[in-house]
């Protein structure tokens, strides 16, 4: 191996190590970022019944 090919190999290894280190640092930074809380379920809507079908009066009422 000539000195030019050795230095080229060394430069490639240094570049690969730098890319790997940058990727690892980004992964650590992303994992340490606080996660937002899960959204709360929607509250029930007042005045609506999930069991009643639209257009049909409830039993015992006059329409």
Task: Explain what this protein looks like in three dimensions.
- The chain is an all-alpha fold and 63 residues long.
- The protein has one helix spanning 3-32.
- The longest helix is centred in the N-terminal third of the chain and has 30 residues, at 3-32.
- The model has no long low-confidence stretch (mean pLDDT 80).
Topology (elements, then pairings):
Blueprint: H1 3-32
Structural class per helix/strand content?
A: mainly alpha
Question: How many E strands?
Answer: 0
Strand content: under 5%
Q: What characteristic shape results from the CA principal axes?
A: rod-shaped
Q: Main beta sheet: strand number and arrangement?
A: none
Write down the overall mean pLDDT: 80
Oligomer: single chain
Rg: 33 Å
Helix content: 40-55%
What distance separates the N and C termini? Answer: 97 Å
Order of helices and strands: H
Low-confidence regions: none
Number of helices: 1
In short:
The chain is an all-alpha fold and 63 residues long. The protein is 48% helix and 0% strand.
List keywords for this structure.
rod-shaped, 48% helix, single chain, 63 residues, mainly alpha
């Amino acid at each position: 191996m000539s000195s030019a090919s050795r230095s080229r190999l060394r430069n490639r290894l240094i570049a690969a190590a730098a890319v790997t280190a940058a990727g690892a640092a980004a992964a650590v930074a992303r994992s340490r970022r606080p996660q937002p809380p899960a959204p709360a379920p929607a509250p029930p809507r007042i005045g609506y019944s999930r069991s009643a079908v639209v257009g049909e009066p409830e039993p015992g009422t006059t329409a």
